[in-house]
Specification:
The protein is an alpha+beta fold and about 110 residues long. About 30% of the residues lie in helices and about 25% in strands. The protein has four helices and four strands; from the N terminus they run H-E-E-H-H-H-E-E.
Length: about 110
């Protein structure tokens, strides 16, 4: 989970509007927990949102300028970590509200036969 949050927070800092806050929010419910990582800045273009969790996919030219040595694996790793914990990772990104990655995890792991 540390790697997951590290990747999301690093991306939020790299791609957010300089000088604007990055927030991490956690919430617990009876059956699941959620977290969000949010930043303001240019939204992720709609056409990139469908593939952004795939390996070696970079967001756009801005991604190359801000993280030229990146491999394009960060969000893929995040998605796989969530899947391995039976969770889900969602993305919302608009000019008005910024970019938010939301993770949802079950509070209790299902019994493995």
């Amino acid at each position: 989970m540390g790697q997951l949050l590290s990747n999301l927070l690093e991306n939020a800092v790299l791609y957010g509007k300089p000088g604007s806050p990055v927030t991490l929010t956690l919430a617990g419910r009876a059956d699941h927990v959620t977290f969000t990582v949010h930043n303001m800045g240019e939204p992720i273009p709609e056409h990139l949102r469908v593939s952004i969790f795939e390996p070696r996919k970079r967001g756009n030219a801005q991604a190359e300028r801000r993280a030229p040595n990146g491999l394009g694996l960060g969000l893929y790793i995040c998605r796989e970590i969530m899947r391995s914990h039976k969770g889900a990772l969602a993305l919302r990104s608009t000019l008005e509200h910024g970019t938010t990655f939301q993770g949802t995890l079950p509070r209790h792991a299902a019994a493995v036969p």
